[in-house]
Write a structure and sequence with these properties.
The chain is built from 4 helices and 14 strands. The chain is α+β, with helices and mostly antiparallel strands.
Length: about 270
């Protein structure tokens, strides 16, 4: 009987331990949350960005003047926004007259977040620069915002920030390969954001209308659109005009974006 009781107790303890491991792996009960990252990342970033501005000789750039704001997401629509991991993405917006925001209004940062509340963030080089930069004295120095570490208080404020940014819809096709019926297809991607991506794409080869196709994507997914009308003989390119009704195009909120892609010889 005693051996049976010990066996049962050990089995229960093993199940409890396994359950704890599953919860930790999926983020259940974790102190790593969207709200805490959205409060911590802008502060860490603004402090380091103002240091970069000093190195570059830019005047009037302070953590307060940047007014940085972040929206964070873990793993797109398929993961809850909680728990450690390397699938966290944060959209960050800030104000710097020396370096305006792109039309979508933010830059995307990739985060590797640990269970202790510390993280490593890497930013978009088109906005924050590369690993080294040339300072105002002509020296090559490290760029403090190329990649940086930060931490938040695991017991800190976890109320929702309400920060939201639209998902960016981008064309990822770089070369057109018409099918046997001479129809073309276009691949789109929907980035991190609060809205997903919806809208239409119109295609034309010269004066020939190739049709309009709708798209509807969750954030951090892709979709391939095939246009119903064949490309006419002699056409050398196709113009695709994307109009976003949810999310944002590469031209900014409410603005259609046109991409022209070359056709192979026929």
């Amino acid at each position: 009987m005693r051996r049976f009781i010990i066996t049962v107790v050990l089995t229960v303890l093993a199940v409890v331990a396994l359950g704890g491991a599953v919860l930790a792996g999926t983020g259940g009960g974790s102190s790593v949350t969207r709200a805490r990252l959205e409060r911590s990342l802008p502060t860490e970033f603004a402090n380091l960005y103002s240091q970069q501005a000093t190195l570059l000789g830019h005047q009037g750039v302070t953590p307060a003047s940047l007014d940085a704001t972040a929206m964070c997401d873990k793993g797109g629509a398929v993961e809850a926004d909680v728990g450690p991991g390397s699938t966290w993405n944060c959209l960050v917006s800030w104000t710097d007259p020396n370096n305006p925001m792109p039309p979508e209004g933010y830059g995307k940062f990739e985060l590797d977040v640990h269970s202790n509340g510390c993280y490593t963030a890497s930013g978009p080089s088109k906005l924050v620069g590369f690993q080294t930069l040339t300072d105002r004295r002509g020296r090559e120095v490290g760029n403090p915002v190329y990649e940086f570490d930060g931490c938040f208080d695991p017991q800190g404020d976890d109320t929702a920030t309400g920060n939201e940014f639209p998902s960016l819809t981008t064309v990822t096709t770089t070369a057109l390969l018409p099918d046997a019926a001479h129809r073309v297809a276009l691949q789109l991607s929907c980035g991190t954001g609060s809205t997903g991506c919806q809208g239409t794409v119109d295609a034309a080869a010269g004066d020939t209308d190739l049709g309009q196709v709708s798209y509807d994507m969750e954030e951090e997914t892709t979709s391939t659109l095939t246009f119903p009308t064949a490309v006419p003989a002699g056409a050398d390119s196709v113009d695709f005009t994307l109009t976003a009704t949810a999310g944002v195009s590469a031209k900014g909120p409410g603005a259609p974006a046109t991409t022209t892609l070359a056709l192979p010889p026929r």
